[in-house]
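Why does this matter for the project? Reviewers at the last site visit asked to see concrete outputs rather than summary tables. In response, this paragraph embeds two records directly. Each consists of the residue sequence and, immediately after it, the corresponding structure tokens. Nothing has been edited or filtered.
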Amino acid sequence: MGSLVGHLVPGSIFILIGLWWIYSAWLRYYVCRRRQRPFYVTTAFSFHCCGPRVAKLPIEAFFVLFGTTLGILIELIAGFNRVVDPETGHVTYYEGANNLQHFAMYFMFFLVGIIEILLYYRFPLPKYFDVVAGCLAFSSEALLFYFHGHARDPVEIQLHVFLVMAICATVICGVFEITQQEKTLYPTLMRAYFTVLQGSWFYTTAFLLYSPFHEHYDGSKDPDVHRTTMLIAYYFVLHIAITLFLVLILAVPAYLVSKRQVQAINFTEYGQIPMDNNEDEEMEKLNGTTSI
């Protein structure tokens, strides 16, 4: 990940997933409100925009598996080292420590994708197990990036601290999704919000440290490190504001879709159980939405 592409790949995944979560959380909120049904919590959302057949497939889980597999391959290939001892001729093979850290991050989210597939095929897992797995994956990411900035210059440390803050906020929102007795929109929406925030911050880190348009940042050559750190905090606040603006913008198409297609959307987990029938008991088993 110590390159421009290495930061853009996870950043793109988090931004795309986060934006999709924001839109889908708004849509679920509006549909549930129109049908006078309680809001319910899942990690993944169905692709209702692509028709009922596609909505019944775990497209989001497939996307997560594809993106994490791509990341795993990139890190293992890029981190592979072959060293030949010039005196003895002994050959040593090893993976770079940075690449192993990034591999661990991708692998945790790969497991989340596997769990979502298992839930899709009705494997008998506990309710909200996908949310628990997501919290564990984000917690692992926070731990890895906290130590990723160790022994770096102040600017790189600050970049990683802000990233860890966004990741920890994502975990807190996931915990609230599980623990709240009456499920509401806010924890799910904020989980999506902070996912987009960390994805956009990956982009900022990439172009600050590894930009192809200027020399890579070197703290020893920075004439005013204090000013740079102040600007980085300013950039982070801008990201917070812009992401909030995106949350508001995505509420508009979600509201319009819910208004026009409220009866057409078969809105439950992966679209398997219709909401407009008297199937509250079965819905409770799947989503916990009838006795909250």
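We now turn to the second protein, recorded in exactly the same manner.
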Amino acid sequence: MVFRTSPFWRVFGMFILMCKSTEGFAKSQPNNLHWKINNLRSKKAEGRVISRGFVDVHARGKLEDVIPTENRRRQQLIAIGELVADGLLAVGCEIYGRPEPVPDDVGDALRSLLPRKTDSARKVRAQELLIVANQTYQKGYFRESVNAYTEVLALAPTNWKIAQSAIAGRDLARKAIIGEGFDDPLSDNVNDAVKQWIWGRGVRWPFHYIIAGILARPLVVTSRAPSRTSVELSSGSKASKRKVDTTSTLLPVLALAGCLGVYNYILLTYGLDY
């Protein structure tokens, strides 16, 4: 007895076979980055291949990095702008906050940011006057202490330790005079506490350099696409094994340690008591 199927079941069976074959083809051609990379390698293009804004596809099918140049260029421009803004903020706080008149010339202002050694005789005289000013303040002679602190700042305006102590002491003496109901002995009405805080956020402030290091990361670190050396694909599974790159982990740590060492050396040698 011969089993004969109706035309309906024949059409239905052909439809099922077509669906199965299409599903198998889709699984055999995954639409992911690695398949695209392999396709570009297989082309073995002569010269430099550029496709859809992606570069770094080298000749003879060698593909090292796949980086969207437009996004990376935009990130680099933003990083440069933020670095310039952070540098200008540090310079502005340094020039405005220190106990010196703001230079009129831009060149003089930039040269004034370099370390300037205080003369030995002036430094000794400023230290002696600072001791006298502190004793005068403790005895309650606030006007005399304000004059002594002002003279200290005139003798050693660039010495960080001496000038900061004099500004803090003069601020307390001025507040004591105003608290007694008298006028401020200084005619310029400069707020010493604010000036001291602003000067403290100048070029010596360590967070400027920490922020600059974070902002400069897009300029030196490039995002790399996963390659066969870092990703091992296993057939039939979605899991991938990533190798830990110890070099990329140690280099930022070593660079940060070196920068901190240089910063501390410059700060202790030229920044605090120079």
